[in-house]
Hints:
The protein is mainly β. The protein is 2% helix and 48% strand. Strands 11, 13, 16, 17, 18, 21, 22 and 23 form an 8-stranded mixed beta sheet that branches. Strands 1-10-9-5-6 form a 5-stranded mixed beta sheet, with no helix packed on it. β21 and β22 form a beta hairpin. The chain binds beta-D-glucopyranose and calcium ion (2 copies). The site of one calcium ion has 6 residues, from loops.
Amino acid sequence: MDPAKLPPLVRRLEAPAATPKVDGKRDLEWDLLPDTPIARVGDVSAGLQARSSAKWLYVLAEVRDPDDDRSDTVTFTVGGKTYTVRREDGHPHGPDTAVQKTTGGYRVEARFPTGPAAVPATDVAVTVADASGGTRTSWTGKVTSTPAVKLTTAPNRRPVVDGAVDPAWAPAPEIRTATLIQGTSGATARARALWSGDTLYLLAQVADPTLSEQSANPWEQDSVEFFLDPGNGKTRGYGDDDGQYRISFSGKTSVGGPLDPAAIAGNLTAAAKAVPGGYVIEAAVKLPTITLRDGALLGFDVQVNDATGAARTSAATWSDSTGQGYRDTSHWGVLQLRH
Ligand code: BGC
Ligand code: CA
Ligand code: CA
């Protein structure tokens, strides 16, 4: 098979809303998602990401090419127009492209004017060429604008897990479950996160006036689910340490996610308390596979399940809008730990 004679495989990439600074530095925004790999050919490979705004399509290419040649190039074709960026550091690239040297390669940040808003997906091709070796590798796909990647923070404080909202929670920003994945209205939760030592602490204050645990399925009982990926891999399936941690309004816990959920079950402890108009959940999740530290980014989501009798009548999340968060981590938001 001669790959040069085959049409390219058309891939898909989401471009969440954001306006990164085109300066060659890797913004926090780029760290919220993993780079999409561009296959290695010889010594050359790259990682790719995209973001979108009303005016621009932003693209990041992290190129690995140890043979530093100023005429190495990255060529972008966006909506039929071609733009070539040379490796040459400090080259006057103008306001719309920037190049920076990295260990073993270079980074290109660029933005391109987007086509008419009516076009649902932009055709993009990225070709990385190593001038001296003559090798090239490329990525071809359709890039779709999506809502911004959700980001919140967890301050370094330790609450008492007893269902009473203690003052330790005050500095933690509050997020809300405003993304309905089932039904048209129902229970909502306000949530916060803290961390201390090897443990993440979670709080949910749920508005749900009628509470039920009648269903045999825990996700059809009034309950809160916290989704945690210590490595923020944004993977299609669950890794061994990714977890769906569920706590019912009466404090019963259940977990889901990886092939062996029992392996993470022991990491969860929780308390629940009824309050007028709803309930409060406080939970502690030990994360033994990583070292929690200032700046760490974790994949994170919150879901509230609203039961009416024996059926779930609505479910709402903070981030994931696909309803697949229980088996796909790629649309969770991000939780950043802070000192
Ligand atoms: C989902 C359900 C799923 C369950 C499995 C829930 O979060 O909303 O659809 O069946 O998790 O644990
Ligand atoms: Ca930047
Ligand atoms: Ca209910």
